[in-house]
Amino acid sequence: QVQLVESGGGLVQPGGSLRLSCAASGSIDVMGTMGWYRQAPGKQRELVASITPSGSTNYGDSVKGRFTIPRDAAKKTVYLQMNNLRPEDTAVYFCYARLVKAGGSRWDEYWGQGTQVTVSS
Fold first, then answer.
1. How many CA atoms lie within 13 A of 33 on its CB side?
2. Distance between CA atoms of residues 15 and 32, nearest Å
3. Could you tell me which of 73, 93, 95 has the C-alpha nearest to residue 3?
4. Which of 21, 35, 62, 109 is least surrounded by CB atoms within 10 angstroms?
5. Tens digit of pLDDT for each residue in 88-109?
6. What is residue 1's predicted lDDT score, i.e. its pLDDT?
7. CA-CA distances (angstroms) from residue 21 to 7, 66, 121?
8. Contact 35/51 with Cβ under 8 angstroms?
């Protein structure tokens, strides 16, 4: 019933910007940390950015100063604002959320379907 729906991926030129969104839908009682991971061909999945319910953020070293992770708590939506994109940012980007389902008493983890970001001339 609960799912994360991602959107906003696409093709962009080096130096350009792109904004991804991830909305949690379904019956949810409590939202916890949300974040973004990415995986390029032949590489391990890596943390891009995360944000806690209190607003604390964490960024991977390769994106610090270029990406931000704003959120809209009322809409249960997290965004990834990507600026000054580089070819090395090309990857499939996955949304992550930790949450408590309606009527539940434990934390569950959910992943989005992934969205392709390609940075190329």
1. 13
2. 32
3. 95
4. 109
5. 999 999 999 999 999 999 999 9
6. 85
7. 5, 17, 24
8. yes
Taking the alpha carbons at both ends of the chain, their separation in whole angstroms is: 40
Reference 57, options 78, 76, 84, 29; nearest CA is 78
Residue located via tokens 């992550």: 96
Q: What is the pLDDT of residue 94?
A: 98
Return phi, psi of residue 74, to 5°.
-65, -35
- Which residues of the chain have a pLDDT value below 50? none
Side chain identity, residue 80: L
Query: What is the torsion angle, in degrees rounded to the nearest 10, for the CA atoms of residue 84, residue 61, residue 54 and residue 4?
Result: 70
Per the structure block, which two tokens stand in for 114?
A: 């992934």
